[in-house]
Model the fold of this input.
Amino acid sequence: MSYLEGAEGAEGAEGAEGAEGAEGAEGAEGAAQRARRSPVFALIAHRDGIAGSWDYQPTAWQSGEIPQTVGGPLSRWDTRIRRFVFESELLSSLYFSIDAPMDGSPVPPGTTFSYEATLYSLLRPNTALGPSPPAGTWKPLISMLRPGDSIFAGQLVLMNGYADLRVDRAREIVAQMAPQYAFWGSVVPLYPARHRYTIELLGLVLRLAKYTEMSFKNALCVRRPNEYSPQIQPILQTPIHGSLPSGHSTEAHAVARVLHALVSDPTKTLAQTQQLREQLMRQAHRIAINRTVAGLHYPVDSMAGQLLGLTIGSYFVARASAPLPSAGGSGYTTPATGSVEAWKFDGTQFNGLQDFTGSEIYDVVGDAVKVPVIKPPATKPFVARLTAPNVEVNYAPCLNWLWSAAKAEWYPATDRP
Done:
């Protein structure tokens, strides 16, 4: 699906932001050379020739004050500018924390900390804030404990076996280094010219996944496989950040969850959309496993990434797929909240010889995370619901605009069921 490969470059556009700082270096290029390449002086002369004496009049086109709405006039802004708005809306309701002294002070004698890392979600009352500070309740969305060093000997044995697949998978592995737009477009008919809002939305899913995965990687600080054995010998340079959770697994499973929710016909049952769900999830599993084949991730990394990706994907859908505002934009037609399942990944209960196939903690028929089978010496499942099993989240009006625009690309008004 090479027609989609260009979409991957959209991620690289982030670097363009840095170009703004280069303005101070413009003098080094030489004013004369720049003038020859720019229409600036031509435009100056052109205006002098046609503008005439100043005579302000109302414009022939509509240029009155832009009406204010809850979501704002997002269709007027550039994609890069919208991204800041969407990210702010998402991240302002998330908080990351670790079970340890926040100020880094020494641990008091006789006190132990689990260093359990948790991502919290904020639920605000559905009331207008105005100048008032926001109030609400923080609830854990997903929590993780890292595995002990003892499990990695078994994980390395599994990785050694996966190395036999390197010749067969090498092209896939290299192609999947960048965001996998071409791969997603092989499962669903995704075209840049037809689905620009869908691609914009998927880019936002990837960035949300990256924010969360990097926070967990930093908190759990699990060494990469090549740091435990010189025989691993990865076929790609190992990224210089923590191993667990796998970023590729997190992002691929988050995209699979969101893309399935976006393109599926809402009038169809789970059974009727199962084939699409299977293909998207199998693809996510394979992308994750390929990182193990490459020598970059343990199977446990992919398992933790799958749980994080599915949770983040569900969180994104719950916040984005709000009912449309009522006439006049005065409010939503139904209570503006959604619900997300809250989960815990306990690496201390993970069996070192446990492999990852994608089906251990996910039921594709019911489209749900499931509690895995306990494998000794574990005494409880390594994935379980948190004490508060469901987290209520606020709809995001700006994000809902993007979701609605992307949904309309798959179901135009004349084609909607």
